[in-house]
Amino acid sequence: MEKLFVNVPVDKLNDLESLVFNKIIKNPSHVSQITIRDLAKECHVSTSTIIRMANKLGFKGWADFKHYLKNKLEYLALHQEGIYNNIMAFDFFLKRMFTDEYQTRITQLAKMIADVDYCLFVGAGNSGSLADYASKYFNNAGHSAHAIIDPYQLVQIHPDNKVLAFILSNSGETIQVIDRLLDLKQLGATVVAVTNHSDNTVCRLSDIVINYQLQDEKSVIFPEGKLTTQLPVMALVEQLAHRSNLIYRS
């Protein structure tokens, strides 16, 4: 069974810090849901003790430690008995999507969608299929939208048009997609990155970034086959279409 913590210098912890660490090891799910003050109260230690423990184990602080703990627990849950559960991964994403921070970003984007002349959805490969789906869904919702799924397609935007371009890319490193992104920025479009993680070229070049932050998965039969669930992208597309509809009505 894969361990929650690997190669962490627990020998550096003093007695109180070790007590906190043991509490975390025994109840990781509970600890991942509580505040540092609650943990300090349960362990009868100060919050400073918990922060020192996190620092000694190689983390920047409690927030960094808790972020690692949550992600690791999700990873272990998804890989029980070596079986990847894409529905469980999607469920984890939905919990994040309905946080205040995520919903604020969706509302911000929905207002922008309501204000532009049309939207573009750009993607290649699997993301190209998602771009096609997104443009059709937006058109069905009454929003003018087009898909760019040919990585070599010439991009043109009339200077009088306000355009919002969504770049769909799991990795954020597809060269042809990055080229289209640069073309769109040069033509005056506002660019929104929709990628799995934030540390990639597409995100660094975009005006707005939205991530779904799931474990990358590949086929065991065909190593180049990408199996990371794309359900979060479809959920985001549909949320944005519906939310911008509400803004039109108001």
UniProtKB/TrEMBL annotation:
Coiled coil: none annotated. Residues 109-247 form the SIS domain. The keyword Transcription regulation applies. GO terms for molecular function: carbohydrate derivative binding; DNA binding; DNA-binding transcription factor activity. Residues 1-76 form the HTH rpiR-type domain. Keywords: DNA-binding, Transcription, Transcription regulation. InterPro entries: Homeodomain-like_sf, HTH_RpiR, RpiR-like, RpiR-like_SIS, SIS_dom, SIS_dom_sf, WH-like_DNA-bd_sf. GO terms for biological process: carbohydrate derivative metabolic process. Pfam families: HTH_6 (PF01418), SIS (PF01380). PROSITE patterns: HTH_RPIR, SIS. This is MurR/RpiR family transcriptional regulator. It comes from Lactococcus petauri.
